Amino acid sequence: MDTKRRDRILRYVYDRRCREGGYCFYRLEEPNSSDTYSALAILHLLGEVDSDEKTSRFLRSFQHASGNFDNLLGAHFALKGLQLLNQAPLFDPFPYLKKQQRAYDVRRVPTGEVSIFKHIYLLIDLYHSLNIPITPPMKDEIASFVLSLQASDGGFGWGYGTLIETAQALSILQHLKITTHNLGTDAFISRCDNSLFGYVNVPRTMPGYIEHIYWGLKARLLTGSRPLYPEICRDIVIRSQNMTGGFSRTTYGGIANLENTLYAIESLVYLRNW
User: Which tens digit of pLDDT belongs to each residue from 21-40?
Assistant: First the structure.
């Protein structure tokens, strides 16, 4: 990444730090765990993350004295953020995480949820990051749940495959040490490669967005395969950076936020491989 682009990104992130240590993409004193994690992950990728007691204290505030969190999403952002700062939570999170060990009825996924695997993906990602062992019964239950949702098109999803759900399913299975090379997902991922958008979430649909490039490249890494249009992906990501220094969801304008900026930078890191 060239120095000028890197400096613009760093300025974008630093400008969104709140007085109490968290981050907020719309630059009000309303920090949240999601933006704070994204900011720290961006700084980490750029080699700029450093100890920050205010930010550590802010992230620790999401855990109750019982060790619980309000929800798994908040737990994921807080615990991963603290890990980036080389800090530990005040209380052992394992009892709370253990209570989250359950497969979900896909017919009861909340309206608007991007992925039926989101909860399990976040949980297994935390187990992996925190080096928490996964018991054989838990492994078997989750693997069975994920594999039962491979669609006839080769992707993973409810009724039909989507790129995001396929990438998350592959990540879960690899963390569980389940062999994925014989699942036939490469052909599905290739159908999500798109000469205009880099990647789309569902084959033969439009448009594609920066999160689809991120998950498409991640799926390629998980399967050891190559994207069909790496230069298109790189060009779209770069052109999604707007005047603030952050990245929007598309090249067609729109407000940049920290989540999309993280997707962009991780995508550029992945693209170094191709």
Answer: 999 999 999 999 999 999 99
How far is the C-alpha of 116 from the C-alpha of 165, rounded, in Å?
7
Q: Taking the complete model, does pTM exceed 0.85, yes or no?
A: yes
Strand partners, 194: 198
Distance (Å, whole) CA 93 – CA 165:
26
Alpha helices in the chain (DSSP H): 3-14, 33-45, 53-60, 72-84, 94-99, 118-129, 136-147, 163-175, 185-192, 210-223, 230-239, 258-271
Q: What are phi and psi of 201, to 5 degrees?
A: -75, -30
The CA–CA distances, whole Å, from 142 to 31, 63, 136 equal 33, 26, 10
Using an 8 Å Cβ cutoff, are 159 and 151 in contact?
Answer: yes
| 190-194: long-range pairs with CB below 8 Å, 24+ | 190/228, 191/153, 192/155, 192/163, 192/216, 193/227, 193/228, 193/229, 194/229, 194/232
Give the span between the Cα atoms of 62 and 193, in whole angstroms. 39
Running DSSP on this structure, what letter comes out for residue 199? E
As to burial, measured by CB atoms within 10 angstroms (0-12 exposed, 13-18 middle, 19+ buried), residue 130 is: middle
Half-sphere exposure of 247 (CA within 13 A, CB side): 30
Model confidence pLDDT, tens digit, residues 119-160? 999 999 999 999 999 999 999 999 999 999 999 999 999 889
CA distances from 78 to 126, 180, 237 (A): 11, 30, 27
Phi, psi (deg, nearest 5) at residue 180: -120, -5
